[in-house]
């Protein structure tokens, strides 16, 4: 059974460096069901659809699908899980299976997924990378799409490339994804036809192959040589004896360059067959119509020849037990200068097909609780002065190849052996004694709230999320369950959460024939395979008992913030029913019951002066503050106390430094809103400065700094903003000496005044009781003392831009010699009073980006993902910029500057075409329609609105600003901003120059 993604995240809240096999989880939070009309009448006229997909139901009724079978659906065969009746299942005579479902989240959208059992593990020797290369070629040209027409075609239909239109290749499958924002009759039928043509009849010509191989090689290069070497060594070591050890999804240079049209065609014919394909369609339409469209477009698909049996992923050699207490049979050391130290080791068991039953899922839930208990112990040991920065245990079934328990850790210092021993000590202790019932209850309560929240939001699950979940279930050969069913299974499993049963399940997680590991170190002489093997196998001396039966801290134990306050004013802002509320101490709030988002509440608190607060020599304090702010606690509550308060509740706690203000963010629910507001208000009322979170943040910053110089992208992350802002010291990345100077005492001296300055704005939008929310804000933020003013020096700080001109700022990296990066940027205006112009300039940057992608990726294959974007500061005076960035071979850097300059000059001289404008405005129109049906869109648009009214009036013009423009208007903006020479930066390998 595929589980709820947010519940899975709760099982392992600390995600470190992901092992090779960890599965990414999708975020289900998108626009809600029953989406309301846009807030402003002008926007409604622009964004509304001419017809709803529901109108198609009559057309679909004429010809019903022939191959539906919901009595014995193929997905649930062999499973006793209660079937999710919202899904309709069918299987065509040619073997293709499909699943369709009606869903109105977001309104009018249809999400299509075509999954093919063809991944890296299906490749033969010499074909490494063919599955992924073929994914690219299907977008190049196919039965109904000419060369290079796929992306522009869907842009004209409102689908953005990369977000709405995409594909993925994994070891076990290839999935083609389309989220069609405007799924009216013609769009939907045309898109289904185009996708079917891509899957069944791509044009795999020598000409197209010659275009796509350089792109895939660029993608391979830009993934980072050092990261890939670590990835490859980890994969080869952990999965030795399986096909996965020898199959990287990106492939090898030799196999990619050796590909021919004939060999690619053979791979396509072997695996792209109806019996290997599943089509999933979810959207705001009659499901019978969706099923009929699948049958119409795939029913006559045939491929000559008999099906090729899928390879046995375990066909090389079985896992052979090592007869020692700690059965280490493979351990590798990878020396990569500039990379942080890390250790990954794994307990491996052979993967076996399972019956996806209720009992099986109860066992997985026990595993989730068991690993959560260990992870909390690991985190608490790290906080109390452990020798590792972070550590995590997780269990995954990897690519239908192995059942694995992973242990991942990052040492604090070069003493990786002590860090390894520390982590093993915690794990070994969990294998000696059962957990306490208090520990179990705490993790159960933590996970329980995730299931409850998903049930609350069951009716507003996004169609794209549902489609991805079903595809994921097919991939792992399991079924899906509705949130209600998943919660029922979870509740039923609670009878098994006893210390004895949890102890037995924990021991199973760490029982395996072999243990394998990889040590990454920046120092080649620091260790070798033999030293690491000995360290892994060495027993640790037991002593500590990590169990805890102490009573957890509760909100009842905490003092009130102050005297509750009643509002002094309440007024409508003119957008929906959003109210602005002001309290006697000057706190201003925006509150809104959006009315269509059960279980979803977002809280945003802005205060102080953000980046304006810092001087040029305080960059290290800002950097450490962003990492450590939450962990330092408040009042008498430490970081561990924060965790105790969060048990069994849906809380968020994110801190961010913005251009003009600091902010705290959270997603919560109405039942927990009062306490969520207390947490944020208490942070401002009584900020705390525990030393350990600060020292840990320093260690994290040092490890990150060491890595920057190893790649061109790393150097950009470290230095670009600093140089782009005219060497403004606030945006410099702190070096090790500056990081070391941030003592806990110095940190408090810098941050304590900043936490007490500047106006406070509280925004609470979502599924709320407005009157209760106003009262909760009054008893928390309204009870704070009056704020100190922002110092005049901070209030007057602006954002600058580097001097433009023909010269190129050249920096160097210490990594691979075939890797470089290039940046071309042009200054723009800034400020909230020019919101319409900022939005038009955003459209201009997207047109620029389409052209740059066409040249640098599609035409010359120099860069996989060149990007153009805009930074327009809205809440602080100064300058913004349009920026073009690409990573590419060093010899292509001058080409990038030349081509980007040509595009800028041509846009200023001739402007874009009508078609180019349509390719950016139609996706934006659809995006705005989707986003404006959810409260987070308005929350983000109105951040700072209690101090800057332009954000309120700006909503009225947003739709027109983003969807109505002309070539002449775009040309005028291009003349304004691209008329100068711009600013250029290149990051080159050490020992080279632009003239080489």
TrEMBL record:
One of its GO terms (biological process) is proteolysis. Residues 101-242 form the Peptidase M16 N-terminal domain. Residues 260-335, 760-920 form the Peptidase M16 C-terminal domain. Its EC number is 3.4.24.55. Keywords: Hydrolase, Metalloprotease, Protease, Signal, Zinc. GO terms for molecular function: metal ion binding; metalloendopeptidase activity. This is Protease 3. Gene3D superfamilies: Metalloenzyme, LuxS/M16 peptidase-like. Belongs to the peptidase M16 family. The keyword Protease applies. Residues 1-24 form the signal peptide.
């Amino acid at each position: 059974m595929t589980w709820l993604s947010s519940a899975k995240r709760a099982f392992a809240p600390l995600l470190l460096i992901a092992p090779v096999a960890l599965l990414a989880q999708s975020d289900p939070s998108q626009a809600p069901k029953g989406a309301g009309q846009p807030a402003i009448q002008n926007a409604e006229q622009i964004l509304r659809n001419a017809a709803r997909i529901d109108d198609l139901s009559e057309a679909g009724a004429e010809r019903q699908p022939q191959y539906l079978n919901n009595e014995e659906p193929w997905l649930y065969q062999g499973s006793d899980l209660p079937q999710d009746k919202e899904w309709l299942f069918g299987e065509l005579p040619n073997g293709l299976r499909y699943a369709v479902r009606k869903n109105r989240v977001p309104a009018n959208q249809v999400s299509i997924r075509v999954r093919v059992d063809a991944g890296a593990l299906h490749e033969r020797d010499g074909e490494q990378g063919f599955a992924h290369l073929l994914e690219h070629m299907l977008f190049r040209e196919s039965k109904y799409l000419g060369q290079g027409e796929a992306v522009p075609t869907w842009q004209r239909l409102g689908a953005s490339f990369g977000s709405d239109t995409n594909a993925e290749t994994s070891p076990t499958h290839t999935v083609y994804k389309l989220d069609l924002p405007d799924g009216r009759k013609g769009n939907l039928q045309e898109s289904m036809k185009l996708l079917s043509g891509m899957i069944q009849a791509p044009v795999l010509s020598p000409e197209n192959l010659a275009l796509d191989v350089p792109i895939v090689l660029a993608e391979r290069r830009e993934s980072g040589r050092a990261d890939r070497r670590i990835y490859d060594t980890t994969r080869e070591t952990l999965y030795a004896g399986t096909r996965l050890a020898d199959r990287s999804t990106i492939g090898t240079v030799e196999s990619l360059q050796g590909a021919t049209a004939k060999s690619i065609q053979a791979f396509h014919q072997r695996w792209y067959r109806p019996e290997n394909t599943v089509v999933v369609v979810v959207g705001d339409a009659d499901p019978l119509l969706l099923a009929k469209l699948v049958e119409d477009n795939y029913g006559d698909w045939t491929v000559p020849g008999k099906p090729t049996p899928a390879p046995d992923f375990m066909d090389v050699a079985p896992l052979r037990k090592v007869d020692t207490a700690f059965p280490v049979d493979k351990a590798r050391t990878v020396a990569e200068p500039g990379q942080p130290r890390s250790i990954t080791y794994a307990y491996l068991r052979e993967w076996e097909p399972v019956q996806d039953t209720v009992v099986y899922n109860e066992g997985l839930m026990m595993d989730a609780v068991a690993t959560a208990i260990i992870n909390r112990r690991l985190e608490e040991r790290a906080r109390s002065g452990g020798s590792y920065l972070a550590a995590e245990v997780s269990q995954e079934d990897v690519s239908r190849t192995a059942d694995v328990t992973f242990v991942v850790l990052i040492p604090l210092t070069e003493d990786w052996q002590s860090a390894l021993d520390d982590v093993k000590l915690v794990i070994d202790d969990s294998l000696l004694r059962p957990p306490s019932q208090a520990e179990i209850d705490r993790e159960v309560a933590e996970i329980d709230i995730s299931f409850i929240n998903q049930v609350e939001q069951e009716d507003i699950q996004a169609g794209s999320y549902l489609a991805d979940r079903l595809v994921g279930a097919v991939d792992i050969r399991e079924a899906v369950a509705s949130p209600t069913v998943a919660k029922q299974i979870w509740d039923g499993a609670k009878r098994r959460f006893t210390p004895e049963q949890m102890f037995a399940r924990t021991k199973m997680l760490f029982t395996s024939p072999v243990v394998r590991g990889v040590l990454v170190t920046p120092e080649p002489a620091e260790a070798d395979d033999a030293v690491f093997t000995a360290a892994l196998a060495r027993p640790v001396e037991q002593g500590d008992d990590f169990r805890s039966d102490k009573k957890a801290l509760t909100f009842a134990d905490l003092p009130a913030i102050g005297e509750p306050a009643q509002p002094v004013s309440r007024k409508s802002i003119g957008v929906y029913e959003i109210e602005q509320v002001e309290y006697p101490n000057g706190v201003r709030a925006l509150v809104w019951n959006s009315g269509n988002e059960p279980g979803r509440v977002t809280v945003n608190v802005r205060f102080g002066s953000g980046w304006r607060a810092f001087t040029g020599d305080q960059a290290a304090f800002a950097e450490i503050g962003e990492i450590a702010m939450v962990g330092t606690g408040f009042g008498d509550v430490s970081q561990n106390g924060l965790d105790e308060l969060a048990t069994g509740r849906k809380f968020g706690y994110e801190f961010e430094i913005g251009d003009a203000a600091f902010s705290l963010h959270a997603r919560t629910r109405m039942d927990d809103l009062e306490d969520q507001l207390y947490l944020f208000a208490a942070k401002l009322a009584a900020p705390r400065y525990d030393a350990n979170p600060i020292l840990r943040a320093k260690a994290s910053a040092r490890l990150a700094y060491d890595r920057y110089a190893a790649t061109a992208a790393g150097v950009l992350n470290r230095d670009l903003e600093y140089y782009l802002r005219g060497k403004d010291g606030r945006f410099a990345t702190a070096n090790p000496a500056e990081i070391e100077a941030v003592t806990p005492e110095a940190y408090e001296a810098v941050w304590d005044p900043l936490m007490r300055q500047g106006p406070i704005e509280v925004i609470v939008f979502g599924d709320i009781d407005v009157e209760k929310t106003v009262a909760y804000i009054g008893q928390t933020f309204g009870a704070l003392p009056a704020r100190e003013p922002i110092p005049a020096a901070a209030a007057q700080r602006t954002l600058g831009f580097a001097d433009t001109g023909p010269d190129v700022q050249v920096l160097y990296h210490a990594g691979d010699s075939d890797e470089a990066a290039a940046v071309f940027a042009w200054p723009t205006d800034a400020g909230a009073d020019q919101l319409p112009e900022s939005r038009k300039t955003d459209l201009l940057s997207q047109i620029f980006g389409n052209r740059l992608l066409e040249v640098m990726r599609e035409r010359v294959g120099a860069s996989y993902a060149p990007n153009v974007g805009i930074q327009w500061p809205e809440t602080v005076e100064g300058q913004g910029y349009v920026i073009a960035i690409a990573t590419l071979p060093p010899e292509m850097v001058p080409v990038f500057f030349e081509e980007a300059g040509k595009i800028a000059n041509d846009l200023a001289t001739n402007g874009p075409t009508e078609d180019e404008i349509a390719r950016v405005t139609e996706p934006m129109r659809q995006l705005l329609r989707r986003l404006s049906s959810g409260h987070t869109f308005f929350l983000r648009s109105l951040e700072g609105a209690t101090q800057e009214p332009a954000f309120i009036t700006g909503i009225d013009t947003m739709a027109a600003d983003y969807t109505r423009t002309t070539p002449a208007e775009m040309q005028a903006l291009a003349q304004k901003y691209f008329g100068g020479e711009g600013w250029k930066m290149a990051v080159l390998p050490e020992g080279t120059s632009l003239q080489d």
